[in-house]
Amino acid sequence: MPLDPSIADKYDLRVPRYTSYPTAPHFNDSVDGAVYERWLGEIEPTSPLSLYFHIPFCDSMCWFCGCFTRIVNHYEPIRNYLDVLIEEIGTTADALSSRFTVSHLHWGGGSPTLLTGADWMRSVERIRDRFDLTPDAEIAVEMDPRDTTIDYVRALAAAGVNRASIGVQDYHPEVQEAVNRIQPYETTMRVIGWMREHGIKDINMDLMYGLPHQTVDRVTEMVDKTVALAPARIALFGYAHVPWMKPHQKMIPEEILPGARDRWNQAEAAAARLVDHGYVRIGLDHFARSGDSLACALDDGTLHRNFQGYTADSAPVLLGFGASAIGALPQGYVQNTTMLKDYRASVGAGRFAVARGIAFSPEDKLRRAIIERLMCDLSVDLDSERAEHDLRIDLSAEMKALEPLAADGIVRVEGPVVTIPEEARPLVRLVAATFDTYLRRGGKKHSRAV
For residues 326 and 320, is the Cβ–Cβ distance under 8 A? Predict the structure, then answer.
């Protein structure tokens, strides 16, 4: 039975997106470069790695953006930054106990599309020089079609890129104007055609709901136009309006944003349309074609969540490179400084640029697993997770906190098993938040739950 639409108003709360636990606002400066270097040396030599590279530059600011980026109008800062990032790759490889294997690489931003083809090849050659890539390694890049040329696509293909995530958000001119991202549908279609022509077959596309001037009709039209381009995966993100964190979002007047119930209706209409088109619903906000590795991971219970969203990547270690990049190691999380001059100075001196992070306690690891399973599978067996982590913590307070959510049909509790019913999928973050002990301490603002 569908939830009453008024539930969107009742639970119009601010909670984390849970791409990590503990979440980034709770990182602290007790984890620094020296701690990171020690953690790197402790990684099991047979452990496969996942690598993330952050390119924090764009040539214009999209007003909805929540990423760490800087606006540039010439290439020199980008080239100089890449010199430092390549040096960081070497410093990191030197700190590891042996030569490691890499199963997944991802370039994000900002806009990696601003890199020249020559610099793309330079960075990939450095990676291959210091790490061994598995034969089936996924090499993925985020792309802005507005900056993409056919020569750039050729360079990506030559570098071995086999998956691309295309930023779209919305196609309607009024919406694009309101968020300062003018991107005609034909531009997106042309770039996708180039990629397929050059062998980059796995295409992801990023869409948004909750943007100014969006309506249910417009988001369903947006979905139909996207499906016509036949992407393997679609991410449908709710716009996170956090102007206290991202001041440029003040360019979007709050009075033209849809309210909680409108956001709910947009999200559900878009999701239903994607399912009608044959896409499998993945977690909170992803969709995949049957047979895509993400859908397969959902089926076999190996779906994971990281800082890029949902992933089939099972590597237990994620190393982040570049200013603001976050890494996830068995011991905890690390994040590089967001200050470009500090990043350059640290790496130039042969040091790590880690400014903050958090070391996992045994309880953090258990709660992290509980939250990840809820976010991925919409269900978790608390007893199984406690047994897996050999930690019998008392969760009676959490079970009590779930009672009002259960009364509203948002969650089912059957003994130790907690399940979010399909109709309450958009509210999975509320259920996950019940197990977040850091959130209870307050003091941090997050995006809307719906």
Answer: yes
Q: In what order do the strands lie in the sheet with 233-238?
A: 279-282, 286-289, 233-238, 202-209, 163-169, 132-143, 101-109, 49-55, 317-321, 326-329, 332-336, 354-359
Confidence of residue 106 (pLDDT cuts 50, 70, 90): very high
In order of 65, 104, 363, 386, the CA distances from 246 in angstroms are: 8, 30, 32, 38
CB hemisphere CA count around 292 (13 angstroms)? 26
- Quickly tell me which residue has 């995949």 as its tokens: 288
Among 107, 97, 138, 127, smallest CA distance to 315 is for 138
Summarised one tens digit per residue, pLDDT across range 16-60 is 999 999 999 999 999 999 999 999 999 999 999 999 999 999 999
Contact assessment for residue 219 and residue 169, using Cβ atoms and an 8 Å cutoff? no
| CA-only gyration radius of the chain, Å | 21
Over the chain, what is the mean pLDDT? 94
How many other CB atoms are there within 10 angstroms of residue 439's CB atom? 21
Does residue 358 carry a pLDDT above 60?
A: yes
Using DSSP, how many helices (H) and how many strands (E) does the chain show?
Answer: 15, 19
DSSP string, 311-341: E----SEEEEESTT-EEEETTEEEEE-S-HH
Work out the angle between the directed axes of helices 76-95 and 117-130 (0-180°, nearest 10): 10
Q: Residue 409 CA to chain centroid, in angstroms?
A: 28
Q: Who contacts 81 (Cβ-Cβ below 8 Å, separation ≥6)?
A: 55, 56, 57, 322, 323, 340, 344
Please tell me the predicted confidence (pLDDT) of residue 446.
57
What pLDDT shows up at residue 12? Answer: 76
Nearest partner of 216 among 177, 166, 279, 268, judged by Cα: 268
Q: How far apart are CA 342 and CA 28, in angstroms?
A: 17
Residue 4 banded pLDDT, cuts 50, 70, 90: confident
H or E stretch covering 299 = helix 293-299
Report residue 235: phi and psi, to 5°: -105, 130
Token pair belonging to 5: 């639409």
pLDDT at 352 over 90: yes
Who contacts 108 (Cβ-Cβ below 8 Å, separation ≥6)? 52, 53, 54, 55, 67, 142, 308
Structure tokens at 167: 């930023």
* Residue 1 predicted with pLDDT over 80: no
Q: What is the pLDDT of residue 13?
A: 73
